[in-house]
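Format notes (please read before filing issues)

Several people have asked whether sequences and structure tokens are stored in separate files. They are not. Every record keeps both together, in the order shown below: the sequence lines, then the token lines. Line labels are part of the format and must not be stripped during preprocessing.
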Amino acid sequence: MALVGSGSAVPSTRLSNEALSTRVDTSDDWIRSRTGIGARRIAGPHEGLTQLASEAAQACLDQAGWRADQVDLIVLATSSPDDLFGTAPRIQAALGASNAVAFDLTAACSGFLFALITAGQYLAGGTMQRALVIGADQLSRWVDWDDRRTCVLFGDGAGAVAVEACPAEHTGLLAFRMRSDGSRNACLTLAQTHTHTPLLEGVTAQRGGFAPIQMNGQEVYKFAVREVPAVLADLLDTTGISADQLDWLLLHQANQRILDAVADRFAVPHGRVLSNLAHYGNTSAATIPLMLDEAVRDGRVQPGHLLASSGFGAGLSWGGALLRWRGPGGRGC
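Then the structure lines:
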């Protein structure tokens, strides 16, 4: 599987820490010192998940030099779909990707990495040749904007990566690990509400709906700084790659202190840790492809660069992958 294109999209509305502090008891200093976040993007009345994901995917197609009808597979990683039956088919239609099968994958902040690995298996199996992997979330609609513990953290956005089948010796997915621990599920939830509608005497039906995001921030932080270095260390050990051979750390953008802690564990200079958390906050499944696209387009990530990536979050779920960026028009596939 070769990574040959990227794209991203964010809402037009920027919500700064200062502006947010006029609603809840917080401040720019309080938020930055604890998270590294300075602002986030919030989808407005005429923006939504399908639009953002489609814009990111189209930018990705343009960079890769693909026509939409050349795509075989679209995997949308999201925990905030426009339609619980699936939003990926809407994106397929918006792009005109008439030959692609499209489906959603839900794994919260681990979603993009899990979706990328999933797409890779289809390509490795030989049944498909080209795939779009999209990470997109609009968590602003599931945030309690009066809860300063969570409302300062999340933003909306979308990112996409184009991947194509290639010989094993040229793969961009060198190794991966995926993990889940449902015993810690309560640490971070977007849970169903428990309301019921009477139908007949003695018969009720559960009514659909979800409560706002709830998070035990301290436990999630401890989980991340323990499990992310462990899964990356396992990958490095398995492949025989040393940390000083990495060009970049590309981690889920949840908290700057987590990014710094992982870098310190492997003695990776902070300048080689990709971070745009200050501008977008935690966009869940979108953080990794959004960050990758930004770094590709500004020239930091170059063809041949080796990246260690990790997604982690609700479930609890986490994983890691060693990726090599090829870029559009590269050699080897």
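For reference, the curators noted about this record: The radius of gyration is 19 Å. The domain at 2-170 is CATH 3.40.47.10 (Peroxisomal Thiolase; Chain A, domain 1).
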